[in-house]
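W.,

You were right to be curious about this one. When I first looked at the sequence I had no strong expectations either way, so I just let the prediction run and decided to look at it fresh. Below is the sequence, 307 residues in total, followed by the output.
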Amino acid sequence: MTSLLLHIGAVLVLPFLVSGVIQRTKALWAGRRGPPILQLLFDVRRLLRKRRVYSETTSFVFRVGPSAVLVTSVVSSFVAPYLGIPSPLAFPFDFVWFAYVWGLGRVALMLSALDTGSPFAGMGASREATFAALLEPAFFLVGGATVLVTKERSFEAILSLHATQGTAFVVWFASVVALLVLVQVECARMPVDDPTTHLELTMVHEAMILDHSAAELAFVQLGATVKLTVGLGIVATLLNPLAGRTTPVVVALANLLIVLLLAAAIGTVESLIARLKLRAVPQYIAVALVASGVALLATTWTPGGPG
């Protein structure tokens, strides 16, 4: 019951705090005061009050896409142990199901973009599909490596891997690197994508939501923030030295602190580093592939490991 209440509270509050910390950090680097911490909440409330506008070329696919993005993001938050404690929907090899829940939301957003008939939305969907196809193997390689090292099968247990020494440290470090890149790509953050750009030729995620308005736009923005929060929570669980070693409340509080620190780090990166050229993004994704491959290869050196 404690785990369920903590997860529900985090889903309701943490995404708004993560968004606020990122925006406030970027504002401080720019020498500005910045928006309120809960600015996303105000934006969502404002969008929900607006009238929806639809193109004559769109069908029900366009209307269903944003809702699917929000639903899959929220469902993934109850599968992933992003608070460092067992998730309410945990089961063996739940990380595989988690990956496909994220994939379902991605496909729904891509289909809704294609349904508009807009060349810019189609271009963004094409780029999103390309990056996802390159990145998805990295997640499963990390999952396989952590399963082999920890001898566990649940998401929460494999993320409780601690950087002790030798093989465990190599797998832990490589997994952290791979997952950080994965979060940047999946959540359309710098240096892969610029969430504030207005230049259609360089857009990825923003190009797919150009035609959404009112509640649909609110669902997409909120779903993307929930997804970012879950991704940062997964990385935070790997970084959390208390995971699996003390009470759930203490672990969750430590994870929340690490998530907010990672959000501040994202704001710093987006303030100091320019986005990559599109042709360089696959090379950046290759960093995650190489790191996850190193993590998997490192498991061959463990006693009783494969090979």
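Here's what jumped out at me. The mean pLDDT is 89. And, maybe more interesting for your project: Residues 2-301 form one domain.

Coffee later to discuss?

I.
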